[in-house]
Amino acid sequence: MYYISTHMNFLPIVKELARTYQEFEAYSSAHIRGLGLLPVQFDVIATLANQPPMTYKQLGEKTLISKSSLTGVVERMVQKGFITILENPDDARSHLLKLTVKGQNIFEKAFPGHLEHLELAFKKLSKSQMKEVEESLKTLKSIFIS
Questions:
Q1: HSE (CB half, 13 Å, CA atoms) of 73?
Q2: What are the C-alpha distances in Å from 123 to residues 30, 73, 127, 128, 129?
Q3: Mean pLDDT of 48-67
Q4: What is the value of pTM for the model shown?
């Protein structure tokens, strides 16, 4: 116990960071579910919206969805008519993903409302507090980049 209390003074930061993410996720997810979407669906729709078609790999790099889950998420979204899969003219081994008209309509309805929902929480911070949090998070992220 002595070792942890004297040499691992970063543990409260890790704990607070995890709790903060959990609270943010709960706040955000509840609103997204209220829109009739799963958080992963919202993530994909928001990533594909107003973008040229992208490969599975590109989508995976731009979302928070694990590579192992992405295929199933995309397949279910294709079945719901949110996404279409296109042949990739530059690489026959891969496919391109694109929002359908239905998917784009969902984005145009859901995204602005979700931003307003998030703003309700973030507007509780002053501009200087927002900048301070942003800089602290950037600093924290930088210590893990090798």
A1: 21
A2: 19, 33, 9, 12, 10
A3: 92
A4: 0.85
Q: Which amino acid is at 92?
A: A
Residues 99 and 83: beta-carbon distance below 8 Å: yes
Mean pLDDT of the chain: 93
Token pair listed for 52: 């040229």
Domains and CATH numbers, the chain: 35-115 (1.10.10.10)
> What is the spatial distance between Cα 14 and Cα 126, in angstroms, rounded to a whole number?
24
- Helix then strand count (H, E) for the chain reads 7, 3
CA angle, 6 then 9 then 15, to 5°: 135
Structure tokens at 1: 């116990």
In which residue are the tokens 């992963």 written? 40
Question: How far apart, in whole angstroms, are the C-alpha atoms of residue 84 and residue 76?
Answer: 11
Q: Which residue in the block uniquely carries the two structure tokens 């003074």?
A: 9
- 9-46, pLDDT tens digit by residue? 888 999 999 999 999 999 999 999 999 999 999 999 99
Q: Quote the CA–CA distance of 65 and 123 in Å, as a whole number.
A: 28
